[in-house]
Structure formats: C-alpha cells, structure tokens
Amino acid sequence: MNLGLLFLESLSSGVITREEMTWITNHQRNFSRLEEATALKLGRLLDKGLIQLGCRISMPIKKRDE
Question: Residue 31 in contact with residue 3, Cβ under 8 Å?
C-alpha cells in the first residue's frame, strides 16, 4: 500500500477504511517526513468530518432497466 495513493483515494471518495487506518498505524514508524505530514492531514480531515471512516463500494451499482 502507498500512503500517497491512499490519501488521494480517501479524498476522492470521502472514505477511509478501518484496514487502511490499521495499515497507517502499523507503518507510521517507517514514514518519511512527507508521509508523516500526509498522515497528519488525513487525521485532520477525519476530525473535521470531511473524510468518514467506513467502506467503499468497489463496483458501481448497476441501474435496473425500467
């Protein structure tokens, strides 16, 4: 997993998963300064409610033919 990509995915979807949060906490000791700043930004966005802790739907829901 890559923190930069995770950050962009969370911003675009508005969601971060519990597994992703666990990955961040398990790998934070190996983060560069830039990655530390990115993780802090994610935390601030969570605190403000701009990113929600939840799950993403991996495939779009197909519309029924009416």
Answer: yes
